[in-house]
Amino acid sequence: MSEFSTAAPYRVRQAPARAHYDHETAHAILDEGLVAHIAFVTETGPVAIPMFYVRDGQRVLIHASRKSRLMRSLIEGAPLCLTVTLVDGLVMARSAFHHSMNFRSVTVHGSATPLAGEEKVAALALFVERVQAGRSADVRAANAQELKATEVLAIPLVDVAAKVRSGGPLDDEEDLSLAVWAGVVPITSVYGTPIDA
């Protein structure tokens, strides 16, 4: 199983037993998620922006208006932190302290590189394919004006850490006899019935 060469400053410190650095775990989380939060620092302070993304092999692709603060900052080389979190359940314990959530998350530190030409065109098709496989062949591709207005950035998967919490509550032994329900309330996401435009 291949592992990321995650540098020490980016490895999990809190609850390190829940950390995963293998490609399989991180890729699975990235492939299931739909929204990544991109955090970076501007001249006025830190910013975090939720964005649709797609994983392309060993990199994550994002796109936005080339005039956006995010794109301008990242193209200039600003370091970034990308996070994706999937919440799988509410963990209900017998004590307030031991309530938790079951989750799977990925954190990526690094910087972004702009894509151009045919690589950019292919990347934009991947975003459409991420929405629905085969759809990029059915819709009109981006025209020259749209391509000019859109920036596509690639973030390499190098300093990557996944973290997973699963299972039931970790109640203290003396609390097990309390007359309080404990367990896990699963959380799932499902697609609804499509609505015609």
Which structural category fits the helices and strands? alpha+beta
The CATH class turns out to be Mainly Beta
Poorly predicted runs: none
Q: What order do the SSEs take from the amino end to the carboxyl end, as H and E?
A: EHEEEHEEEHHEEE
Mean pLDDT: 96
Strand content: 35-45%
Q: What is the count of β-strands?
A: 10
Let me know the CATH homologous superfamily.
Answer: Electron Transport, Fmn-binding Protein, Chain A
The CATH architecture classification is Roll
Helix content: 10-25%
How much is the radius of gyration in Å?
20 Å
CATH topology: Pnp Oxidase, Chain A
Describe the main β-sheet briefly: 10 strands, antiparallel
**Separate helix tally:** 4
Characteristic key phrases:
197 residues; alpha+beta; 10-stranded antiparallel sheet; 19% helix
Please describe what this structure looks like.
With 197 residues, the protein is an alpha+beta fold. It has one domain (8-167): Roll (Pnp Oxidase, Chain A). Helices cover 19% and strands 37% of the residues. The chain has 4 helices and 10 strands. Strands 1, 2, 3, 4, 5, 6, 7, 8, 9 and 10 form a 10-stranded antiparallel beta sheet that branches. The model has no long low-confidence stretch (mean pLDDT 96).
Summarize the structure.
Helix content is 19%, strand content 37%. The protein has 197 residues and is an alpha+beta fold.
How would you summarize the topology of this molecule?
Blueprint: E1 19-20, H1 23-32, E2 35-42, E3 45-55, E4 59-65, H2 69-75, E5 80-92, E6 100-110, E7 113-114, H3 117-131, H4 144-149, E8 150-156, E9 159-165, E10 183-186
Antiparallel strand pairs: 1-9, 2-3, 2-5, 3-4, 4-8, 5-6, 5-10, 6-9, 7-8
